[in-house]
Amino acid sequence: MVADTDLGALAADLAREAGVLALRRRAEGVSLAATKSTVADIVTEADREVESLIRERLRRERPEDGFLGEELDAAAGTSGLTWVVDPIDGTVNYASGIPTYSVSVAIVEGEPSPEAWRGVAGAVYAPVLDELFTAVRGEGAWLGAERLAVTEETPAGALLGTGFGYDPSTHDGDLATVRRVMTIARDLRRMGSAAIDLSYVAAGRLDGFFERGLNAWDFAAGALLVEEAGGVVSRLDTAAPRPMLIAGGPRVHERLRALIADTTERT
Ligand code: IPD
Question: Is the keyword Chloroplast assigned to this protein (predicted)?
Answer without folding.
Answer: no
